[in-house]
Amino acid sequence: MKKYIVYTGILLAGLLLGWILFGSSSKQEAEHNHSEVEESNQMWTCSMHPQIMQPESGDCPICGMDLIPAENSADGLLADQFKLTENAMALANIQTTVVGKGNAEGNTIKLSGKIAENEEANAVQVSYFSGRIERLNVSFTGEEVRKGQLLATIYSPELYAAQQELITAASLKESQPALYKAVRNKLKLWKLSENQINQIEETGKVKENFPVYATVSGTVTEKLVEQGDYIKQGQPLLKIANLNTVWGNFDVYENQIDRFKKGQEVMVTTNAYPNKEFKGKVDFIDPVLNTRTRTVTLRVVLNNKEDVFKPGMFITANIESSKANNDEVLTIPASAVLWTGERSVVYLKANADQPVFEMREIKLGNQIGNEYEVLEGLFAGNEIVTNGTFTVDAAAQLQGKKSMMNKDGGKVMTGHEGHLGMDNNSSNKETDHTNMNERLEVSEKFQQQLNSVYNEYINLKDALVKEDSKSTSTSASTLLNNLTKVDMKLLSDNKAHNHWMSLEKEIKSSATSISETSDIKVQRDHFKHLSSHLINAVQLFGVNEKVYLEFCPMADNNKGAFWLSKEEKVINPYFGDAMLSCGEVKQIIE
Q1: CB 480 within 8 A of CB 456
Q2: 3-state SS string over 219-257?
Q3: In this structure, is the dihedral angle defined by the CA atoms of residues 571, 576, 577 and 579, taken in order, positive or negative?
Q4: Domain for residue 436, yes or no?
Q5: Are 418 and 434 in contact (CB under 8 A)?
Q6: pTM above 0.70?
Q7: How far is CA 224 from CA 133, 138, 152, 156, 209, in A?
Q8: 361 within a domain of the structure (yes/no)
Q9: N or C end: fewer C-beta atoms under 10 angstroms in the chain?
Q10: Distance of alpha carbon 231 from alpha carbon 391, whole angstroms
């Protein structure tokens, strides 16, 4: 009996020991198996080719390097959303605005214009007889003259002979009255007054030099002759403008024409008198469209008796739209909008507390000053990016999200790859050449001016390759100077005009930051943003030469960065000698 009790005790002890040893092990195994299930959703990518995404580890099908775990999306983000770092937000000076509605403000259109002379009140002072100007009494343009004031004295052989004819005819006026009358009428046609003719007749003396008097009052705007000049009958001597009233000429885009009508009240301001507003009324709307600028001229007549406005002065007008619209108008700043083909897109800040963004396609109405009406896609209260929009778009492209250049998103085409992409299911295979960014038609002169900016960018890039911060700063300053010479007036298309305004602002900001520092690391941070915006400019407008778009996935703390080059060989400006050949050509921009 004791023997069975001992055996039973040993059996129970064995079971207890087995549970302690193997129960914990099986629990760990279960946890391990659960962990493996969770990790089965992990995607693997290549550090050199981030477009490669595979569900398991292995070798890169392009370069053969070991794949690394891809970063998982931020918690709580939807498929099309992406997040920027606080550092990126600060460097790119990204600003957002909450969209709101307005009635009066939404219907007020702001126009820019220029003061011009009132052509209806202008006059040209002419000579009614030929001769030589013996004395010119007007010394300079801008001089005020009064009607009847002596302007010049002219010697005229024709007038000299006509005076002698009058003296002779005066002695024969009883016998030949017709001849006498004809001679007097001849002098009247030369604008001699009755008193002048009577004086010649009564004195019997011939005047050698005859005066020319002002026929109107006003300001001399142009001298057309000088003292001593020989002039012909009817030749203009001076241009005289009456500046008691002036014209304010404003350019109105064709999509705004239906918002104006004759007689509308206008409030005009000028930088010369920043705290004053001047009232005027729309007097004329040009019936012919300027095909070069796609605008018509709207004219406002302004009272100028106090000599406030000077011809050539820049002015601004606020005009209430004549288009009846009782509905509230939703408007957004023009700087918030990106265009590609027929699409208009903005970037929406999806989370009020965090820098989380997503692309939103919208439908635009008319342009009102520097704002656009929004017909579809946004609501009052939405927060959108209004400064640094191109930088946010570049970030969306790098993270494979929906963007201006890739409306479907995805990692197949990253960054500014544009024409080129990689098929994830093949090795080293190029997809069809599909232009994701519509080239805008601009003049060759504009392309040449943009080319001067691009050439200095290349010098800046080469200085970064050599790690020469001083030359980098100098090239950035020269680039800024070349940027000021790019004439925006050469862009007749409204879409191209707005694109360049946004890009120029970003390029200027990045280049200024580079020029103001000698820290090569900081210069490279700003070079990344400079490259992003100049890439957009080159793709949109062209620079009349072949450009290579190159990409290094290890730049910017392994987030990747692009740059432009004149040569296919990769020479990396982000690392210099440390990793000179790191990167690859992503696109050839013809």
Answers
A1: no
A2: EEEEECCCCCCEECCCCEEEEEECCCEEEEEEEEEHHHH
A3: negative
A4: no
A5: no
A6: no
A7: 12, 11, 13, 19, 20
A8: yes
A9: N
A10: 65
DSSP state of 71: P
Q: 245-282, pLDDT tens digit by residue?
A: 999 999 888 777 888 889 889 999 998 888 899 999 99
* 348 belongs to a structural domain: yes
SS (H, E, C) 83-134: ECCHHHHHHCCCEEEECCEECHHHHEEEEEEEEEECHHHEEEEECCCCEEEE
First and final C-alpha spacing in the chain: 100
Check: CB of residue 62 under 8 Å from CB of residue 351: no
Over residues 450-491, the pLDDT tens digits come to 999 999 999 999 999 999 999 999 999 999 999 999 988 888
Quote helix, strand, coil % in the chain, to nearest 5: 35, 30, 40
How distant is the alpha carbon of residue 369 from its chain centre? Answer: 13
Q: How far apart are CA 442 and CA 459, in angstroms?
A: 25
Which domain does 290 fall in, by range?
Answer: 108-118+243-320
- Shared domain check, 91 and 175: no
Number of domains into which the chain is organized: 5
What does the H/E/C string look like for 320-381?
Answer: ECCCCCCCCEEEEEHHHCEEECCEEEEEEECCCCCCEEEEEEEEEEEEECCEEEEEECCCCC
Longest dimension (CA), the chain: 184
CA distances from 413 to 151, 177, 306, 399, 400 (A): 76, 101, 64, 10, 7
Do 143 and 234 reside in the same domain of the chain? yes
What angle is formed at CA 474 by the lines to CA 446 and CA 486, rounded to 5 degrees?
Answer: 15
Kindly state whether residues 89 and 114 are assigned to the same domain: no
At residue 401, what is the residue type? K
